[in-house]
Amino acid sequence: MPDRLPRGGGKTIAYHTKNGKSPAVLFLGGFKSDMTGTKATALDRFCRETGRAFTRFDYGGHGASSGRFADGTIGGWLDDALAILDQVARGPVVLVGSSMGGWIASLVAIAQPERVAGLVTLAAAPDFTHRLIEGRMTPAQREALARDGFIVDPSDYDPAGYEIRKTLLDEGRNHLILGGPVAITCPVRMIHGTEDTDVPWSLSAELLARIESADATLTLVKGADHRLSAPADIARMEAAVAELAR
Asked: Which of 28, 92, 168, 196 could join 226 in a cystine, given CB atoms 3.0 to 4.6 angstroms apart?
């Protein structure tokens, strides 16, 4: 069973953590994913085998944490990540962010640079609420959003689709990072698949171009999709974490 971090108002964040070598690794999952996914559990196993401290968690409204997914915002999920960093993880950390987690991890690295020893992103989706949801909406969806305050966005990962609220899109604009220089100065390793139809690799390339760190690379994996969960992809993630953790 996961541990729980109280967040006020009866809300809790579910998490798993273990002590070990520093820097610790902190995994940040994607949009409507949770800490039981392939990458999170593989990284947990890798850190156990190498004796490194590791933490994974569920944002509010995700997985075992309290709250409703539809009520979530980028700022709220960022606050969850910062609470885990401040109250659960110890010492410097290597952040590993998958999809939306790549955006959240980037925001954490900007907010708490003194705590972040390195950043690994997997199919990073910075600014996705604006670039990928709003940017791809049909006229009918825009009309429904204005009328109802939400739309149901089809998804390959959930037959019911995702309920996307206007509040998510409006609040997300407060956290956009691709409009100018991105104040990330730690070493960065980015991995993205060339056949990612959910988040184009051009977003990772744009983030790479805008971050201030001089020690940053982007690895494009030919033929890989958004999941980056094949054995070779997991090995790539582990190698990036091991490099930055040194």
From this structure: 196
